[in-house]
Amino acid sequence: MKSFELNFSLKRLFLALILFTSVHLLAQDSHKNIIKITASKTYWSKLLHYEGSKSIIETGEFFLSPNGKTSLEAELEATLSAFKNDPYTKCKYPARYKWLNSLGIVERIDAECKELDRFLAPNFNKISIVFSTERYSAAASLFGHVLLKVDSKTRSNVIEYTADVSKSTSAISYAFKGVFGGFVSKYNFFSFNAKDYEAREQEFRDLVVYELNFSQNEIDNILLHLYEVKDTTQKYYFLTRNCSSELITLLDIYNYDAKERSSSKLFVLPVEVVNSVYQSGKVKNIKLLHSKLKQFQMHYEVLDEDEKNILRDVVFSKRSVHSLIKDTNISKSSKDKIVLSALLYYEIVVQDKQISQKELSKILTLSTYKNNNFLSYGHEYKDIDKNPISPYMYRTSFGFLYKKDPYATIGFRNLYKNRFDLLDGLVKNGSVELFDLELRANDKLSIEHFTLMHLSSMPLSSEFFSEPTKEMSIGLKRLFYDDKLYSYGEYGIGKRMKATNNISYGFTVYGGAYDSGDSLFCLGLKTEIEYKLVSKYLFRFGTGIARYENDNFDESFNDANVFIQMNFKTSEHSLLGTKIEYYDNQDEYFTTSVYYNYSF
Question: Which of the residues 91, 176, 273, 294 has an alpha carbon 20 to 30 A from that of 120?
Answer without folding.
Answer: 273
